[in-house]
Design brief:
Structural class: mainly alpha
Shape: globular
Low-confidence stretches: none
Distance between the termini: 26 Å
Oligomer: single chain
Order of helices and strands: HHHHHHHHHHH
Strand content: under 5%
Length: about 300
């Protein structure tokens, strides 16, 4: 990936638009574009739509979602209409152009960070650079725009890990917090995503398609945006599919690979809840737990596959 001035300028528009409609809604659009991009590929087309629209300057999470997150944090500083974590609020509603321009600026920053990460030897090809950029951008937002420390207002009276315990006023997704239900969610949703990845591998043996269920999961957040208690699963489905695509040639057995994908999905669910408590819950800006789970889980999967291949 090389620097492209057109992409940089488009990233400003991507961040601006995402801020206007809200970061969450921008990511839902990402899901639709991922599904459409995969359909184009399966129909015999190239990956340009998937790469340039779904994961590029239009709806790439490192640009659009990250820009919306930054704009929400800034909006909370200059307006009492939204909070710094209100990524579901279309920020056009507060009628401040400076808020949307922050989204534009962080859209451009996201493009540059992602470009830089892709150039890092080994790591740039052994992680999800988009997810990593989302996290780096959000940390910059927390430190530069948010009030307080990186870890937020943790309970200093509690001991050890208890300082990061979620509560009603500081939580990500309350129904993902308990270990056993979260583990089952990760395992069985991962199982389903892994199975879909293998069915697609059967039908399209020349294509490594790992983002279809990720797109479905992203689109499903529409129901969460309506206020329904809907599971957040895109980190689970993506990692399960990535594990499946990479381990199927190594294992050579579909059932064994299916369980590898399920376990990978479960680990991704654990990672997301860990990072929710460690980085997101107690702060006043959004540091995305799924993105924080995706990049290290991807690195682990790709590193293990590389060693075992």
């Amino acid at each position: 990936m090389n620097f492209d001035l057109l992409f940089l300028l488009m990233a400003a528009g991507g961040g601006f638009f995402a801020a206007a409609i809200g970061a969450l809604h921008a990511f839902i659009f990402t899901g639709f574009m991922v599904l459409l991009g995969n359909a184009v590929i399966m129909a015999g087309g190239g990956p340009a739509f998937l790469n340039d629209v779904a994961f590029g300057p239009v709806f790439g999470p490192h640009i659009a979602f990250a820009g919306g997150v930054a704009a929400a944090a800034y909006a909370a500083r200059v307006s009492d209409k939204v909070g710094g974590k209100d990524i579901g609020v279309p920020l056009i509603s507060i009628e401040r152009i400076d808020v949307l321009l922050v989204g534009a600026g962080f859209g451009m920053l996201g493009y540059l960070i992602n470009l830089g990460v892709t150039k890092i030897p080994w790591f740039g090809t052994h992680t999800d650079t988009v997810a990593f950029t989302v996290v780096v951008s959000a940390i910059i937002v927390r430190l530069a725009i948010g009030r307080g420390s990186l870890f937020g207002n943790i309970d200093q009276q509690a001991a050890g890990w208890g300082r990061f315990a979620p509560k009603d006023s500081a939580a990500w997704v309350r129904y993902h917090e308990k270990f056993v239900p979260n583990s089952f969610l990760g395992f069985f949703v991962g199982l389903l995503s892994s199975g879909l990845a293998m069915l697609l591998a059967r039908a399209y043996p020349d294509l490594a398609i790992a983002t279809v269920f990720f797109g479905i999961s992203a689109v499903s957040l529409f129901f969460l945006s309506l206020g329904l208690s809907f599971p957040v699963t895109h980190h689970i489905t993506l990692i399960a599919a990535v594990a499946t695509v990479n381990f199927l040639p190594i294992v050579g057995n579909e059932i064994g690979t299916l369980f590898i994908g399920a376990i990978a999905g479960m680990v991704a669910a654990w990672f997301a809840e860990f990072f929710a408590r460690f980085l997101h819950d107690h702060g006043n800006t959004h540091i995305d737990p799924p993105a924080a789970a995706i990049w290290p889980a991807t690195t682990i999967v790709l590193a293990l596959a590389g060693v075992l291949a």
